[in-house]
Amino acid sequence: PTPTIPERRHHEHAARRAHHEAPQAPAGRLPGPDVPVAGVGRPARAAEGRAGGGGELSGPDGCDGGVAADAAGVAVGSFGPARLRPRGIPCNVYPAKGYSATFPVLKPDGAPTVSLTDSSHKVVFSRLGDRLRMAGTAELSGYSRGLNTGRCEAMTRLARELFPDALDFERVSYWSGLRPSTPSNVPIIGRSHIPNLYINTGHGTLGWTMGVGSGRALADLLSGRRPEPEFPFLGL
C-alpha cells in the first residue's frame, strides 16, 4: 500500500522532507545480519564431519581428503565464476561493490525506526537498535573491497542533511561488500549441466531478501520436487 504523506509521517516520525510516494511494507522485519547468520550456522556446525554415499567431491579448503555427497551447491556470491568457469559452466555474474555507513544514534526520536528508501539518492536506511545503517552505491571496480573516500564522505553528508541532530557523525563506521550481479538482475538458481552440481547466485542487492526463498527452492530441486515459485530455474 502507498499511504499518504501524513500517514507516512505517522509511521515514521523522523521523516522531515515531503515525498510524492511512500510505499509501506507492514509485514517487513529488520533483524541485524548476525541473526540469520547465526541461524544458518547452527545446523552447519551440527552437520560438521558427516558424509553420505554418492559421488566423490573434493573437500573444502583446509579439509583433508574428500567429502562424499550425492550433490553439491555453489553459493559463493560474486566468486561463483571463479569456481564454475574452469569446469565449463557459464556464470554471468559480476561484483558490484556496495557501501554502507553505520552511525550510533544520539537521539532516538530523530532517527528512523523503520527501513526507509531514498530513491532520489539510491540509498536505504535501516535502524538496528541503537545504530542507523545507510547503504547504497554500485561501484564496478573488480573484486577490490577498498573504500573510496569520496563515496564514504558523500554518504555521511547525506545522512547529516537528513538527520542532522540524531546521529553521531564522528563515530561512523564504513564497510563495503561485493554484490553478485547479473546483466538482467535475475539470479541464477538451479542445476548446471553437471547433473549433481547446483548453482545459487546472482541476487544482487537482494541477497538477504531472497536468500531463504532461493535456498528453499534449491532444496526442492535437490529433492526432486518442483519449487513453488514461478521462476526460470536452471535444469527444469
What do you see in this structure?
The chain has 236 residues and is α+β, with helices and mostly antiparallel strands. It has 2 domains: 63-93 and 182-236, no CATH class; 95-178, Alpha-Beta Plaits (2-Layer Sandwich), CATH 3.30.70. The protein has helices at residues 5-11, 34-46, 80-84, 149-162, 207-222, and strands at residues 55-58, 66-69, 72-74, 94-104, 116-118, 123-128, 131-139, 173-181, 188-191, 197-201. The strands form 3 sheets. The chain has a 5-stranded antiparallel sheet, with helices on one face. A 3-stranded mixed sheet has the order 3-10-9. Strands 1-2 form a two-stranded antiparallel ribbon. Strand 9 and strand 10 form a beta hairpin. It is elongated.
Low-confidence stretches: 1-6, 49-59
Query: What is the approximate shape?
Result: elongated
| Span of the ends, CA to CA | 34 Å
SS strand fraction: 15-25%
Element-by-element helix/strand order: HHEEEHEEEEHEEEH
Q: In total, how many domains does the architecture comprise?
A: 2
Give the number of helices: 5
The description of the largest β-sheet is:
5 strands, antiparallel
Structural class: alpha+beta
Mean pLDDT: 81
Question: Which oligomeric state applies?
Answer: single chain
Family: Belongs to the DadA oxidoreductase family.
Protein name: FAD-dependent oxidoreductase
Pfam families: DAO (PF01266)
GO molecular function: D-amino-acid dehydrogenase activity
